[in-house]
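Sat 14:20. Reprocessing the chain from the morning session after the first attempt stalled halfway. Input below, unchanged.
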Amino acid sequence: MEQIPSTPEKAAPKQLMLDVKENSELLKFLIEQLKGKSRTTVKALLAHRQVSVEHHTITQFDYPVLKGQHVTITMGKIPEEIKYKGLRILFEDPYLIVIEKEAGMLSIATAKEKLLTTYSILSGHVKRENPNNRIFVVHRLDRDTSGIMMFAKSEEVQSTMQRAWHDAVIERTYVAVVEGVVENDEGTIRSFLKENKALIMYSTKVPGEGDEAITHYKVLRRGDAITLVEVKLETGRKNQIRVHMKELGHPVVGDKKYGAKTNLIGRTCLHARVLAFIHPVNGTEVRYETPVPGRFMSVFARHAKIEGEGDER
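Finished this time. Tokens:
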């Protein structure tokens, strides 16, 4: 395909197109095709977003490539990745987009705010390729919660993920800074969650009074008045972590709605750190992980005496 110069002085990067002759995994296919290139060099091509399958940039080493598909390698420096205010794209293929959302960004529009949402930004992103493209919400994060979210690129994929959510999602892990010192190193909270007329979720132990919710937590760090906890969801109910932390007697810092008395960084200290799931189309496991937000760790230095030593990444 003829390359059009990006400027009069500088031509677009050269591209190498490869035909897939038999089903394989992307890294294996590239190593076989790029004779003389080391495994490290080939992995770097993926890490630097220089490889695309059917015009979609892929970084996943075990991404399945199918007979008849085309793999394109961009040689040399590639155009700078498109950046969006409030979110970062972690993974994209023809079926899904996985992003990291900043706190303060809505997942979808409300009556008060219709423009600056993850949905509207990503909708514009996919329409850059084709004006008819659309995205579909698979799950949501609260406005003040940062972290990893997933969107579908078709109604069919959205429906598949939502129907099989419990089986398809392997791991959903959050980190939170909560008020007070959590006594037990780890534990599980089980209850039924229901929404009242004021649209506030509450917890009850009475079966049938609401939807069953199961939350597992583990203490990562203790201070003199706050605790950093890792939280894994077995179920995904609305405001589940926030309600269960309140029930534990340790509301999430900054979460006034569910009992917090402190607001140390001007936001709710809750972050969706890990999302791992089975891809709805090719069946491979996809896993994305982000660091504990630096601002979460900073509150320990400013407001608490850190207990013990350890890596503060």
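The mean pLDDT is 86.
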